Amino acid sequence: MNKFEALGFNNAIVKAVTELGFESPTPIQEKVIPVLLTGNTDLVALAQTGTGKTAAFGLPLTHLVDFTSRETQAVIICPTRELCMQITRDLQSYTKYIDGANIVAVYGGASIDNQSRDIKKGAQIVVATPGRLCDMIDRRRVNFSNVRFAVLDEADEMLNMGFKEDLDTILSQTPEEKNTWLFSATMPDEVLRISKNYMEKPVEITAGTKNSGNDNIEHIYYVVQARDKYAALKRIADSNPDIFAIVFCRTRIETQEIADALIKDGYGADSLHGDLSQQQRDHVMKRYRARSLQMLVATDVAARGIDVNDVTHVINYNLPDEIENYTHRSGRTARAGKTGTSICIINMKEVGKIRIIERIIKKKFIQGTIPTGFEACEKQLFSLVKKIHNVEVNEAAIEAYLPSIYDELKELTREDIIKRFVSTEFNRFLDYYKNAPDLNANTSRDRERSNSTPGITKLFVNLGELDSLTSATMKEYISEVSGVDIASIVNIEVKSSFSFVEVKTESAEIIQGTFKNVRYNDRNVRIESRGDSGGDRRSSGGYEGSGNRRSSFGGGDRKSYGNRSDRGGDRGGYRGNSGGERRSFGSGERKSYSDRSNGNSTGERKSYSDRSESGGYSKGNSDSGERKSYGDRSERTSSRNTGNESTGGDRKSNFSRERRPRKQF
Ligand code: AMP
Prior knowledge:
Blueprint: H1 3-6, H2 11-20, H3 27-37, E1 43-46, H4 53-64, E2 74-77, H5 81-94, E3 103-106, H6 112-120, E4 125-128, H7 130-138, E5 149-152, H8 155-160, H9 164-172, E6 179-184, H10 189-198, E7 203-206, E8 217-223, H11 229-238, E9 245-248, H12 252-264, E10 269-272, H13 278-289, E11 295-298, H14 300-303, E12 313-316, H15 325-330, E13 340-346, H16 351-361, E14 366-367, H17 373-390, H18 395-399, H19 402-408, H20 414-433, H21 444-450, E15 456-461, H22 471-482, E16 489-494, E17 499-504, H23 505-514, E18 519-520, E19 523-524, E20 527-529, H24 530-534, H25 537-540, H26 549-552, H27 559-562, H28 611-614, H29 633-636, H30 654-659
Parallel strand pairs: 1-6, 1-7, 2-4, 2-5, 3-4, 5-6, 8-13, 8-14, 9-11, 9-12, 10-11, 12-13
Antiparallel strand pairs: 15-17, 15-20, 16-17, 18-19
This protein binds adenosine monophosphate.
The site of adenosine monophosphate (AMP) has 15 residues, from helix 4.
């Protein structure tokens, strides 16, 4: 028996949840459902997003509502349009087998007349954002006199967003004897006040610790120089080939700039912030959900209510202004029992803030080390190997070409073919990361480490296990070619595609000198002192931000991305495979906003990066489907300021400073 049947749900609901793959209730559902099914109680539940809270209230609601009647019996209020649509979709799926069920979403940015018409048809449950619902109440488009249940979802968010008065208005329109169910991720005083004002002896339920984060989230912080933040973000993305992330920024401008830069550098990214119209937001979210985007760059306000499963990483490009928001941000990952990582990229001065967050969320952070360029290469290499292993071969399409291909490659052994095939991509990526700097700020820990063995120099060698070398054979090989005594090679760490060789400092130069123009298995051997690539590289000028790394690895033919005007209507340059699988490195759909001359009100928008173009662009307002340009800053002062999302007055962003050196390369 499905465990939901045992909880007492009717057959139609059990059938629907079984189809959704719900086998047993989540912890919050286990606690909440039996209480709510009694049908006569107020409830305050502390629950994070992603815990299954929608079903925790949605299933009892659909069980208790009388769908043979056309009266509105329940109203669910939530902070954002995204969440509103999500809850509506969820409830519609629970009621799939219930005749006459009509659940209507009511939110701003869409036609109020259509929504009123849908309600008039007999909506038993209305799911709404506070602003639009108040509008409807003002215009007498809703009748809440028969409401038996009011649900406040993400109550803390609604109060944060300044909806307190709207909530008062809405709740005052509903009968006093209704039941009120309140869900909140945190329990600030204002939320407690609501529960006191509107509820009678509510049952209190907690899933997880008060104000604490989800146990399945690993919290990591990286300390970098302010100017290296963007490079660190890319390095993190490159070291996680399957990343599916939300990157949080503080201001709208920064959000847009980071997204633009990521797009330019070849990542599947886009932005979500308060200056986008609803249509634009929907478009971005659609692409993100479909995994055409690897990284969604968002402000706190815009990201509220984002309900996407399988987000692997939340990246705090900047720490939130309100430390409490950290819980909301990190809650976007590790949903539905999955695990996830919440990353903070900070500068040295911000370590204290990490300690404060640790106290609030009652979790310890791990201090991470930004991977080296070669580590990123290695991760990409194995991701590529995995992709090759798992690729679905289209036998019919490829068959005709195989005889000529076999013929062309007939001289090569299996090992050679594999090596060469993988190298076509890998070499380009190695090239991209050649001279990639160490991005970790030089903390005392790093200084200690780099000084730990005086007289020893660490060399990087571009040979490894893939070249069938072991530490013993590598030692012999280096000694033989360079003529240095084998004893001066003190340690060798052989990785799959490269190695680290620690040698007495006096031998290091000899080895580097003798290995110029040496080839191994038809490949140039490259030996570099780690200081060349990992030391104070800022003086060596190796700035990783230059160029489009996707054109270096996995990105295929640069031409396919290079000419933006070419990319208009199709997904021509798109290398990812089709179907549900997300494109990792070298893919990502970028076409939508690339054709800038095409700006129109159906989701197209201007890029902030092209200032000269956007300078004269200022029509409509951000509610009506188009947004103002940031090109002319004076315009911004009159643009809509949504809640506490900064309009980006803080232009001294680290990012804009650190982009400059990129132009040198
Ligand atoms: P929520 O916290 O309501 O946003 O839910 C997070 C995700 O968990 C949603 O995708 C739900 O479909 C899923 N979910 C909710 N309840 C269950 C359950 N009992 N078993 C499996 N998945 C669930």
